[in-house]
Write a structure and sequence with these properties.
270 residues; mainly alpha; Helix Hairpins; EC 3.6.1.8; NTP-PPase_MazG-like_C; NTP-PPase_MazG-like_N; ATP diphosphatase activity
Length: 270
């Protein structure tokens, strides 16, 4: 059963603490001097830490990470309230109104007897109507510039796909991937760094498109690859430390062999 009274009490407490920290005479100097731009990187960082806790299934850390993210919302809302723009209640009201409007099958008279896929299509149709109401006329309007590049690529591609601008399937994307790879190799030998960077960006964009067609979240996939690399490289460090050495005391051939050993050990455990 939901303890809404306790939730409200704790939200009120958090909002009050944030107001205290921002008080011009008795607050914290660091908190007082912050603005939207200076806090934005922390907001992004905290969102990533929430995702990291989920990836690691660190459920004991999860409430704290969600709290850190919630603090970012309260921080921005407090700064906005000080400027007479809006406050936390406005933030909560707008997201509540949006959720109700986007779920007519729960809060309205539409039938709930539909697939998850159809619900996603309906959700996108409602969002498209909202964008039209905001005078966002272009198909790609409203895709936030501040998103991680891979995530934004997926969103741009999804928008274009809704109007028919899309590859028929993964095989077509793979063919384009081969083409972009060949162009990158050519650019490496013939073009300047700016052109090489552009070709690499094209390749990454196609990789994001392939992930979309395979129903893979590229950010999540890359986080997994990063975690795997970290885990295996630490195995190399551990093996070398047993001999009183560090990676800089080894060479590529030895470290590659230790990498393969770590890889084999993971497969055996899996």
């Amino acid at each position: 059963m939901r303890d809404t009274a306790e939730a409200r009490a704790q939200i009120d407490r958090l909002i009050g603490i944030m107001a205290d920290l921002r008080d011009p005479t008795s607050g914290c100097p660091w908190d007082i001097e912050q603005d939207f731009a200076s806090i934005a990187p922390y907001t992004i960082e905290e969102a990533h830490e929430v995702a990291d806790a989920i990836d690691r299934e660190a459920w004991d850390e999860f409430p704290g990470e969600l709290g850190d993210l919630l603090l970012q919302v309260v921080f921005h809302a407090q700064m906005a309230a000080e400027k007479g723009m809006f406050d936390f209640a406005d933030v909560a009201r707008q997201i509540s109104d949006k959720l109700v409007a986007r779920h007519p099958h729960v809060y309205g008279d539409e039938s709930r007897d539909k697939s998850a896929e159809q619900q996603v299509k309906d959700w996108e149709a409602i969002k498209a109507a909202e964008r039209a109401g905001k005078a966002e006329k272009g198909v790609l309007d409203g895709v936030a510039l501040g998103l991680p590049a891979l995530t934004r690529a997926i969103k741009l591609q999804n928008r274009a796909a809704r109007v028919g601008f899309d590859w028929p399937g993964p095989a077509d994307v793979l063919a384009k991937l081969n083409e972009e790879t060949a162009e990158l190799v050519e650019a490496r030998d013939t073009l300047d760094h700016a052109a090489l960077t552009e070709e690499f960006g094209d390749l990454m964009f196609v990789m994001a498109n392939l992930a979309r067609h395979l129903k893979i979240d590229p950010e999540q996939a890359l986080r997994g690859a990063n975690a795997k690399f970290t885990r295996r490289f630490r195995s190399i460090e551990t093996a070398l430390a047993a001999d009183g050495r560090r990676p800089e005391d080894s060479d590529l051939a030895e470290m590659d062999a230790l990498w393969d050993a770590a890889k084999a050990a993971e497969r055996a455990e899996g």
